[in-house]
Amino acid sequence: MATEPARLTAKGRATRDRIVGVASELMLTQGVARTTIEDIQREASVSASQLYHYFADKHALVHAVIERQTTDVLGFQRLALDRLDSFAALQEWRDMAVAVMEQRNCTGGCPLGTLASELAETDPAARDELATSFGRWEKLLRDGLAAMRTRGELVPEADPDRLALALLAAVQGGLLLSQTRRDSLPLEVALDTSIAYVRTFAPSNWGSGQRVG
Amino acid sequence: MATEPARLTAKGRATRDRIVGVASELMLTQGVARTTIEDIQREASVSASQLYHYFADKHALVHAVIERQTTDVLGFQRLALDRLDSFAALQEWRDMAVAVMEQRNCTGGCPLGTLASELAETDPAARDELATSFGRWEKLLRDGLAAMRTRGELVPEADPDRLALALLAAVQGGLLLSQTRRDSLPLEVALDTSIAYVRTFAPSNWGSGQRVG
């Protein structure tokens, strides 16, 4: 059994953190399959016995990487989404996502999306964890949209569940296409159009468009 | 240099096809990194010398898999999209995509998306090829939307470039989330909302929604 972070000393936590950081970097750039325990050990400058003190096996490392990436991604969302009480906040969230992607020249996709795509068919536990992570992200979006509806910034016909899922799919698809094309345009268009769709549920815009099936 | 398909006899083409089929299956389910030449050789029941007669190395196999998957995915799109001259056709395309995903119990994502996510940071040639494949897919969508606009089924303000990219991102994001959740709902919602957004550009729905920035 590997040692849980809660039981570690400050120094132990720092070492564990460093290992998870290195594992994240390697697994996200070269893939989980291509990343060996030895790679991580070498890059993190730890001995095998140190590494195994914290992580029983590669599965435990993958689990820790998913946990870390979930915290990071949701933390990033919260920067904008704790204040998701307006279209301005949604726009800011969009701008932040595009800026981050441009900063790294469109290399790398969403860490959760990348891990999900690689692991969905080979690691059922990882797939489950990632589904939960996406669910938490979706909930952040849904809660914001629901608050907007409650305050009347969206009409009662707006469905926060569906709109949140549409926004999350747009981010994921947009990031994957931007990563593949090395161009932020797909992400921009995916977010702009899905936010524009949310906007059709603003009282001032609410018209015939949504009622035609 | 590996032998190009055009130079092969019918029997040679059949063998090559079988190898590409096996390589596709393995690379898409277990990942490119986890798939060895030996795996493919064994599963396709060919000797090493036979395999190397057709493919110089693993890169050549990856290239052939991308080519095959692009043909398959675009062929599938064309089933619906050659007739993308109405919202009914878009709806049919959506229904087909959802039906296929349900048929396989939401296992596997888009072959092109899966390959792009795994290879974007490790195989620049594959990334380029996949960007081209996505571009061809986007063009199918764009041509259909442009035709609808020409015929007045979309208002002149509709931008086929942006709408096509939004639809493609929605499919990619929706498939990834559906694969991860093993639930077709994300794909359904992503496609329904992005088609609903296209519908806001139909002359009968064209209202204030699109003009509020």
UniProtKB/TrEMBL annotation, chains A, B:
Annotated Pfam families: TetR_C_13_2, TetR_N
DNA-binding residues: 36-55
UniProt superkingdom: Bacteria
SUPFAM superfamilies according to UniProt: Homeodomain-like (SSF46689), Tetracyclin repressor-like, C-terminal domain (SSF48498)
Keyword annotations from UniProtKB, A to Z: DNA-binding, Transcription, Transcription regulation
Stretches assigned to the HTH tetR-type domain: 13-73
Keyword DNA-binding: yes
Protein name (record): TetR/AcrR family transcriptional regulator
Source organism of this protein record: Fodinicola feengrottensis
